[in-house]
Structures are given as structure tokens and as C-alpha cells.
């Protein structure tokens, strides 16, 4: 699957980055060691000239030459280097990896309230929600950098299911809806490609490499500013000594900073080109992305960011946030030049940026959701195309998400934004259409919800009666932030109510299992990722055994006849086993229960990307074996993808 492939590529780049970082640290420590030897030699020279060390008989004893190797100097240098550089690295990674919001808060971001009535902020939320549902990703937290007039944005987060997107006030003021959508799509592509985790790691590593430069700069500034309080002869001596020591020290630390900037550029530039191309595919509106770049080029504030922390996080941004300084040199920039990025989209661009001098009226009449006129949504009854879209989504998926949100917003938006009302959405999808069963379900809720809530639940369930199968994932995504903000006791009560509603009729349908799984993931009660089990590879024999159970369920539950069931199962198992291995027999139909299916998915969820990729490929091969995929097959495939944390675009 494309998503897992991209995650693996990002992981390999992380390994390369760590190797380069280790080399850079070693080089920096080596340069500091040579500088320390030089300083020791100077001290030895002056001591021998004016020294007064004599042995017992009064004979002068000069200091010996330290040579090119001095274990004490080396030990001191390496100890200080590791403390300063590695310590700063670990501290920064810990801070930026502590939460998706950490980078946004570092840049001075303000969280956008989902219940906001500000039309500009609401437009941004709608765009982010469209993109999340279209791509199959959880809806990120949304921040606005209110004090930043430049046109820019960034995404952050250490995993794709806990992310944040921040947009500058300048981007909200200056970009049209389509241009802003293209910028947000670019940031979503970074999330899909695993770039946010890579960038977080890179921020920590490069912060450590640049720390010696900042330590030296601050120390020298303190010395120079403090010498005025010292008597003139002594002050003059301090300045001379400082100048002698500082010149090589500045050179060495500047080399470390340049190495850090070069590493940042080495990793970032191609990732920006890749995200640009994917954003164009996503929105199918290359001129919108090019238009955003052109406005940056013609706008007086450009893409500059004023936050003092922008140097450390420059590689997170959509466009170059630096206005001056060493890191703004062309050969160290982490973003390709605007002209090159535009010409990859619009080859006819002549390189001239029209001046953008005033704030345009962009928001009058903006729709809540957008869909180009004349676009016809596809009605998918039997298609194989969807099974191949665990890749970069395209405009069809975005249009489907817009259409879905347009139909859902007036029904669930009010409930999704309010933490105490959000559980009603979950209950509404679980209420049965059978009057007797529904009454029993209502009785289960009487003790934990109010009568007004039950009336609201009946109304909402009736509104969603015809949309339960296709809209529940999107609706729960809209409510996810509110569900996560519930108190732990309320979250526990929600899960108890979900289990009670499902258990009323004594059986668990695919829809009920999928809703339960989605709610578990959102409220933090998921067993998909037990502590300490993340990314531990499952032994081959156990892996094949679990795949056998999962694929047997898929084969029996799919749209196959008796012969095709066996063929579907074998097609899936061939993706799991080596070519020379014999495919084991299917499980008996009676063994293929919903509990077995759920247990298999829960065992697969914590596995590393390579094994989850194999599971997805095996399920794909199983479902696609007869070249027919019904809507139920596709929904089942999406259920598997959600359990394995593989983003799956909205059904076009």
C-alpha cells in the first residue's frame, strides 16, 4: 500500500538523518578539540614566557607541548560537546514530540474553537474537515498564527493520527478559498507521507547542532557588554583575549550551524516538491497552488514569519519563513525557490510577481463546502478502483467529502461541536430500525442520559436512517475532538453505552463493529495500541496464523460462491507466505465469528508498517480475487484499513 510505502521511506530518511547527524556531531567535536589544542598551545606559550613554576632546586620548568593527542583535553571536549549538543537535541525532540500542538504553540498559535462563529475561521475549519475526510485521516487540531502577516502554514505531529495544522493570519486574509484549500492540501500531503514525524526529528537534531553557535554568540555578547564595568587596562585585556579566542570559536560554531542548515535542506527540498505535486493531484487545481505562490512573491510581507523561534522550525513551513540571516542564503534554504515551484505547475510563468498591496474581499459568499460546478459524483456499485486508493487521494475523493459534509452539516454539526452532545451522534448510528429493538436500546440509556437527549437522539436517528452505512465514519470524525475532550468518567460511560446498545439484539453487525472501533480510537480507549507493544514485529508463524483467521472471515463474508471462497482465501494467503510454502486450509465457516475478526485486527494494529502493509495487500488480494467489489466489500476493507491506521479516502 502506498501509504505504508511512504511511511517506510520517511523512516529510512530518518535513519539517514540520524547517521548524518552523528557524523556532524563528531566533526563539530573534532573541530572544537583542535580549537582547544590551539588554545592550550597559546596558554603554554604565554606561561613559558612569563611563567614562574620552579622545581625544588629552583630550576624553571616549562610546560610541555600537549601534542596532537591529549586525552584530558579530548575527554573534556567530548563531555561538554555531548552535554550541549545531544542534551539540546533530546530536550527539543521531547518537547516537539510531546504533542501535535507543541510546534504551533511555540510559534505563537491560537487554537481555533470548533464552535467559532468567525466566518474566516469557520471557512478554515471546513477546509480542514473536507481534506481529512477525503484523505481518511483524523481531523487535525487547527491553529491560527494571529500575529503573522506573512502568507504561510505548517503541519506538525509525531504520528498521522495526532496532528495539527497552523495557518498564518496573512494566509487567511490574502488567499481565496481555493488557494487556501491548496495550501492545506499541501500540508495534508506532508502528514500522509510521514514528513511531520521526520521534521520533528530533524528539528531536534538540528537544534542540537546549532546550539554551540548560540552558546558562543550569547557568551560573547555578555563579555563584550560587561567589559565597560571593568577598569580600562583590564577591559582592554579582556577584549584582546576575547578577540583572539572568539575568532576561531565563531568559525568552528558557524561551521556547525552551516552543517545543520545543509542537512535540513538536504532532507526538505524534495519533500516540498513531492507535497506540491500531491496537492495538485489532491485538489486537481494546480492554478490555485500556483496562485498562492504568486501572492507570496508579490505580497509585501511575503511568507516571512516574525516569531523568534522560526529558525528552528523553518522546515515545517509551507514557504520560506526567513527574511535574513545565514539560513536565508539561497544554497541553505529548505524550500525551493518560488519560481521553480510555480513553473512545475504553470510552465508559462514568466517570473514576474504582480504586487499584492491590499487586503482583498475574499470571503463574501464563500460556501461552507465547495464543489466545482459541473462535477458529477460517481455512483459506485461494483468497482475495483477504490481498492487501489490507499494512495494519495485525488479530486474525486475531495468532491465526495464535500458532498458528504454538505449533507451532514445541518444534521450533526451542532452536536459534533459540543462535547456533551457529541455522544448523541454515536448513539444515533447505533439505534436499530426495528421498533422493538430500538425501544430496548432507549431503555438502556434512560439511566445515563436525560429525556431531552433521548428526544434529540430519536430525531437525529430518523434524519440519519438512510445514511448510516456511508456517513458514520465522517460523522464520528467531526465529533472526534469533542469526544476526546470529555472527562475520563464520561468517556468510560460512553463506551459502556456503546457496548450496551450493541448487545441488545445479541449479535454484532459489521456496522456496529466499525462504529465501536472508531469510537474506541477517538476517545482513547482503543486496544489497538497497547502500551509497550507498538511496532513489535510479530513472529512469522503467529503472523500467518492470524492472517489465516482474518482472510477466512473475509472469504466467507465476501460476495463469492463456494468455489470462489477458496480462491479468494488462497489469493490473500499468497501475499503472506513464501512462494514455496503450502497454503493452509481455510477455517470452518462456524469458526469465523465477529469476535475472531476483531481479535485479528487488534493483534495486527500495533505491528510495524511492513507487516501491516502485508495484511492490507493480502486483504486487497482476497477481496479483488473475483474482480467484483460491492459497497459492502469496500466498507469492510475500510474497516480493516481504519483498524490498521491506514488512511483510506472517502468513497467517490
Provide key terms for this protein.
4-stranded mixed sheet; 22 helices
Give the number of DSSP strands. 4
SSE topology string: HHHEHEEEHHHHHHHHHHHHHHHHHH
The count of helical stretches stands at 22
Task: Note the overall shape.
Answer: globular
What portion of the residues fall into strands of 2 or more residues? under 5%
Q: What is the end-to-end distance?
A: 19 Å
- What's the helical proportion of residues? 55-70%
In spatial order, strands of the major sheet run: 1-2-4-3
Low-confidence stretches: 364-390, 525-533
Task: From the alpha carbons, calculate the radius of gyration and give it in angstroms.
Answer: 30 Å
Structural class: mainly alpha
Average pLDDT: 77
For the largest beta-sheet, the strand count, sense and barrel status come to: 4 strands, mixed
Give a structural overview:
It is a single chain. This protein is mainly alpha-helical and about 650 residues long. The protein has 22 helices and four strands. The chain has helices at about 1-50, 70-95, 100-105, 120-135, 170-175, 175-190, 195-225, 230-285, 285-300, 340-345, 395-415, 420-430, 435-445, 450-465, 470-485, 490-505, 510-525, 540-555, 560-575, 595-605, 610-625, 630-645; strands spanning about 110, 140-145, 155-160, 160-170. A four-stranded mixed β-sheet has the order 1-2-4-3. Residues about 365-390 and about 525-535 have low confidence and may be disordered.
Break the fold down into its secondary structure elements and pairings.
Elements: H1 2-50, H2 71-96, H3 102-106, E1 110-111, H4 119-135, E2 141-145, E3 153-159, E4 162-168, H5 169-174, H6 177-192, H7 195-226, H8 232-283, H9 286-298, H10 338-345, H11 395-417, H12 422-430, H13 435-445, H14 451-463, H15 468-484, H16 488-503, H17 510-523, H18 540-557, H19 562-574, H20 594-604, H21 609-623, H22 631-643
Parallel strand pairs: 2-4
Antiparallel strand pairs: 1-2, 3-4
